[in-house]
Amino acid sequence: MSKRRKSFALQRKASIYNKTEEPQLKAVKTRLESRCGLFLSMRHSNDDSRTIIVCGNNDSKDPSTLFYLIPVGLRVVSIQHSETGHFVAMNSNGKIYASEIFGLECKFKENVFENYWCIYSSLQYKHPETQRPWHLGLNENGKCIRGSRAKKDRNVSHFLPRPLEVMMMREPSHQEIIGQSRSSQASATNEVTGEQAV
């Protein structure tokens, strides 16, 4: 390969790499207000400070209520906490949890219901027999309810986004790689110190 062609190939490779690394998605920094009167939140568990839980908070100014709504498909979003970097996720039992790593369980279909209230249903799971979608739900006690119980006509399933600003972010798949790397490093450190990984 000539020097000129080699130089062009290297420049093209660098250009592709830079485009991959640059923020590509318009994410909305927002609070999600439940129709039950609480805001979706993430915080450390009172029982185990190493565990992060998804819950409700009545303080609209609390930093724990700040999330990024990141588009990851057609009318599909991921909900990432601004402080912890964890994602709101739903497992195969319909349980809502905080995931350090982005994956299929972190994808929710966003449907605008009425008066801009939104419903977030799991893209991965639904009722095995009726095929009814499983929704993100938050009750008046600040607890997330299982997707199988969060029906679309109930207040527990309705959230009103309170957008603060639009931000450019990388695709969650890139953050997943970073998260896996950090997780691996943490596991190695914990093995040395004798601590258990979160």
From TrEMBL:
<dbReference type="InterPro" id="IPR008996">
    <property type="entry name" value="IL1/FGF"/>
</dbReference>
<feature type="compositionally biased region" description="Polar residues">
    <location>
        <begin position="178"/>
        <end position="198"/>
    </location>
</feature>
<protein>
    <recommendedName>
        <fullName>Fibroblast growth factor</fullName>
    </recommendedName>
</protein>
<dbReference type="InterPro" id="IPR002209">
    <property type="entry name" value="Fibroblast_GF_fam"/>
</dbReference>
<feature type="region of interest" description="Disordered">
    <location>
        <begin position="176"/>
        <end position="198"/>
    </location>
</feature>
<dbReference type="GO" id="GO:0008083">
    <property type="term" value="F:growth factor activity"/>
</dbReference>
<dbReference type="Pfam" id="PF00167">
    <property type="entry name" value="FGF"/>
</dbReference>
<comment type="similarity">
    <text>Belongs to the heparin-binding growth factors family.</text>
</comment>
